[in-house]
Specification:
Blueprint lengths: L2 E11 L8 E12 L4 E5 L6 H8 L7 E6 L2 E2 L10 H4 L2 E5 L2 H4 L6 H11 L5 H14 L16 H13 L5 E5 L7 H18 L2 E6 L2 H7 L2 E6 L2 E6 L11 H9 L1 H15 L6
Parallel strand pairs: 3-8, 3-9, 6-7, 7-8
Antiparallel strand pairs: 1-2, 1-4, 4-5, 9-10
Helix pairs in contact: 4-5, 4-6, 5-6, 6-7, 7-10
Bound molecules: adenosine-5'-diphosphate (ADP) and magnesium ion.
Adenosine-5'-diphosphate binds next to helix 1.
């Protein structure tokens, strides 16, 4: 198993720094992710999905419970931050691509930064890798010298995906990666994520409040509500057959959108432009 989460709990303090009041955000969450698998995590805003996501990439320590990556406990292994070969295997792409990048950096610097941080490449080798990665995300070397404000949302998210791939990760946290994009662009970016997953044998945790997107990309899915997994769907084709009241409520709220996505899929087959 690539990633294993065992009974994690997390409380956040409420009412400011000096307040002792605590609000439970994660209430005993367990999950597993195998190599090459895409697991969907579906839940409403505020249910704790991003907190769980941050826990998986090593930046949110659980109050209780374990997070194991390749069998090693990432919060209890001494010096894990100093183990570049291990750390480089975990990457992330977030919803807000604009605040994920430094607006003063050109694309080449955005993509090569993790190569320098992890001491994987520098100079012309790093630049060659940036061109390779830009091609992999459907952009190409022409984009190297652009600034973020000179790119569309879809193009900037592709740059963020290239940066996430730079260190050859095994796992990428995708926290609402298409939620800020137009629906037609969402499908293109999901197709890209799907083909990269196959080409580089990646595992994803795909966080979304959007069932149509989860159905499109994931192998299986978890319904998440108020800090708990309320239902697991082992075969994504059965996403429409969830039983829990909460899962059904979410399902009905997106049925209209599924139709919209189906329309775009048809449009894409007729030949779509890169956005
Ligand atoms: N660092 C933090 N300090 C205090 N509260 C937080 C912190 N991070 C998240 N929260 C709270 O935890 C809850 C869940 O947030 P989040 O994990 O972002 O949910 P989701 O991604 O499902 O929308 C929210 O009520 C949010 O305000
Ligand atoms: Mg979130």
């Amino acid at each position: 198993m690539l990633l294993k989460v065992q009974e994690v709990y997390k409380d956040f303090s409420q009412g400011g720094f000096f307040s002792a009041a605590k609000k439970p955000i994660l209430k005993g969450v367990s999950l597993e992710l195998a190599c090459g698998e895409c697991l969907g995590l579906i839940g409403e805003s505020g249910s704790g999905k991003s907190t769980l996501g941050r826990m998986l990439i090593g930046i949110e320590k659980p109050d209780w419970g374990e997070v194991l990556f390749e069998g090693r406990n990432i919060y209890r292994s001494p010096g894990w931050r100093q183990q570049p070969d291990w750390r480089r295997k975990i990457s992330a792409v977030f919803q807000d691509y604009t605040s994920s990048v430094n607006p003063r950096f050109r694309v080449d610097k955005i993509i090569t930064e993790p190569l320098y941080t992890h001491r994987l490449a520098s100079g012309s080798k790093a630049m060659e890798r940036a061109v390779y990665l830009l091609e992999k995300v459907g952009l190409g070397g022409d984009y190297l010298k652009r600034y973020p404000h000179q790119l569309s949302g879809g193009q900037l998210q592709r740059v963020c995906i290239a940066r996430a791939l730079a260190t050859n990760p095994a796992f990428i946290l995708l926290d609402e990666p298409v939620s800020s994009l137009d629906v037609s662009v969402q499908v293109q970016v999901m197709d890209l994520l799907d083909s990269l997953k196959k080409e580089f044998q990646l595992s994803y945790l795909f966080i979304s409040h959007d069932l149509a997107a989860v159905a499109y990309l994931c192998d299986r899915a978890l319904f998440f509500a108020e800090g708990r997994i309320v239902e697991a769907v082992e075969r994504i084709a059965e996403l429409g057959q969830v039983k829990e009241a909460y899962s059904r409520k979410l399902l009905y709220s997106v049925l209209d959108f599924s139709d919209q996505l189906a329309d775009y899929r048809c449009g894409r087959e007729e030949g779509s432009r890169l956005a």
